[in-house]
Amino acid sequence: MTSKKILLGITGGVAAYKAAELTRLLVKAGHSVEVVMTESATRFVTPATFQALSGHAVYTDLWDERPSNAMAHIDLSRRADVFLIAPATANTLFKLAHGACDDLLSTLAAARACPLIVAPAMNRQMWDNPPNQRNMAQLRADGVAVFGPANGAQACGETGEGRMLEPEEVAELLEGFFCAKVLAGKKVLLTAGPSYEAIDTVRGITNISSGKMGYALARACRDAGAEVTLISGPTGMEAPLGMRRVDAASARQMHDAVMAEVGQSDIFISVAAVADYRVKNPSAHKIKKGATPPTLELEENPDILATVASLPAAPFCVGFAAESQNLLEFAEAKRQRKKLPLLVANLAQQAMGADDNQVALLDRNGPHPLPSMPKPDVAKAIVEHLAKLLPQNQ
Ligand code: C5P
């Protein structure tokens, strides 16, 4: 995202320490961060920490005379692109939901002209408390964006929902918040990663796909406003925030997972590097070393993408082609054979496992080559292109 002016509100929860790392990350990403703290927040972390990390004066007091017109409660949020409150305590969320204006932070929220985002942080019982849930519903209805909370270990020793997201996660979601919502209201189903076909109980046939391109596309679709379901082969990567991930190892498991979901999908993006063949009779026990090497008999896997693309009510289908030679020619033939409105062509030896990728987007108007870019940028370009091809945008 281009550089933004972020007003970061910090309220009095133990997760306030995470706001220090968040400030550092946002500044590192090129944003301008101004910090406002509640009185209780200053009991957990000091304004000096945030002054040093943000490079700006920190505000805590409604009666602060530093802004030229002594109107801190209006000035600070008027010059911001977004007001992000992280952590947001149950008390602050209650105040925001009811329009309270009894300190600088709540008054800034009431007087703001920019979007408001909250990252709640509290004990799981406080999170589930019906009044808190009512406040959250009110805030959502008022158009406030809610990041998290996460489920996990809490400072109080309990485990459950209410933990503030990690600083990297808040920064990632904030990045997405500013993306154009070109897929708003769309349901996207996406496969990613390698497949794994068992030979015996401990060995299998797989490939060097890392899942990075598919996960980047899943995030780009989420950031564009889509509801995303990610069917993932074994990648070892964390499930991206804000989407449902279904794990599937073999081509047949991936096929079944896709077919169970595809009826509800507007768009299907097939990024997974699915094995064309599987072992016909995988051994139920570890194969022992013997005098003669074992022979593997293979049989064909279902082509998930071709199956989905030929459904009577097929979603908008996007395929990938990883070729090692004659890229555009082989890829265009694949696009036509699988009946795809959009196919992303890349060189297998450059793309698989790498952080950057150079692709060409193939549609009925021909190839659209893109420069080599980090995979998250490639993903954004694919999403922008595919949104233009959707039937209602034609
Ligand atoms: O024919 P090829 O395997 O090169 O086609 C690649 C495209 O088809 C990718 O989008 C891949 O995800 C998809 N595919 C599939 N099921 C298979 C093989 C490939 O969905 N069994």
UniProtKB/TrEMBL annotation:
It catalyses: N-[(R)-4-phosphopantothenoyl]-L-cysteine + H(+) = (R)-4'-phosphopantetheine + CO2; (R)-4'-phosphopantothenate + L-cysteine + CTP = N-[(R)-4-phosphopantothenoyl]-L-cysteine + CMP + diphosphate + H(+). It comes from the Bacteria. Binds 1 FMN per subunit. InterPro entries: CoaB-like_sf, CoaBC, DNA/pantothenate-metab_flavo_C, Flavin_trans-like, Flavoprotein. Keywords: Decarboxylase, Flavoprotein, FMN, Ligase, Lyase, Magnesium, Metal-binding, Multifunctional enzyme. Signal peptide: none annotated. Residues 4-173 form the Flavoprotein domain. Pathway: Cofactor biosynthesis; coenzyme A biosynthesis; CoA from (R)-pantothenate: step 2/5; Cofactor biosynthesis; coenzyme A biosynthesis; CoA from (R)-pantothenate: step 3/5. Residues 1-187 are annotated as: Phosphopantothenoylcysteine decarboxylase. In the N-terminal section; belongs to the HFCD (homo-oligomeric flavin containing Cys decarboxylase) superfamily. In the C-terminal section; belongs to the PPC synthetase family. This is Coenzyme A biosynthesis bifunctional protein CoaBC.
